[in-house]
Task: structure prediction
Amino acid sequence: MEWTDDEKWKQRLLRRKRWLKPLFEQVKPGKIVEFGCGSGFVLEDLSKEFPDSQIVGIDMNQERLDAVAEKNLDNVETMKADITTQIFPDQSIDTILYVGVLHEIFSLSGREKVLETLKLGHKALKDDGILIIQDFLKPPPEPVTISFKNQKTEDIFFRFTREFRIRNIEYEKIKGGVMLDIGDAVEFLTKYRPPSEGDWIEEMGETHHYFTKEDFHEVASEAGFTVKDSIKLLNVEDYFAEIREDIEFDFDENERAWIQLVMEKRM
Result:
């Protein structure tokens, strides 16, 4: 049975809701701030789970903040601001969340801006506070192969290698396909079928798979944090099912995973 786009979106929402369970288990009640809240997917469930907490959503997109307002969440307020700048006083927040947003900062400004952003979170967090990250996870370096089942697919791959603006994609041509690093392979597969040309152009300026687990731990330490807990959030749907009609690859679905890090201030 082939799912409609609406059904696929609902499945992704259900998956994300399952991912929020381990996040909520780590949240410290009080003042909770989500940096890069979007249209309020996380805020909505946070409001239900922590009704006695003060919850704040920060985003630069006013339309998304308006969507949050339409949800009429009693204990949630929003603020339009750049999350890479200082917004809150020092030691004023109990829990800070970055859910699916640090990869956008990396894409726009690189690793140093991610580090600067986490340092600002460190300053705003209370000494006994918690900072939680959920984001895409880049697999450890490993050579893998992709085989193309038709010329169109091969052409799309080589267009990707020419137009991806975040990093150079290195590959070796082999019979029927290419050999490349698994992080670049997963990056390509997640961008293979954008809805429109405009979406393709946008995706060429954004990386999802930018940090390995070791990279996350390193930047957390540089920002002054100790990683209290670090888990891999596995996919619960076959994201690549349709792509396999055009492409063969020698790694499994769980390589397109997320990571959750729970971080405490290092005193």
Notes: The chain has a mean pLDDT of 91. The first strand starts at residue 31 and ends at 35. Residues 5-137+210-236+254-265 form a domain with the Rossmann fold fold (CATH 3.40.50.150).
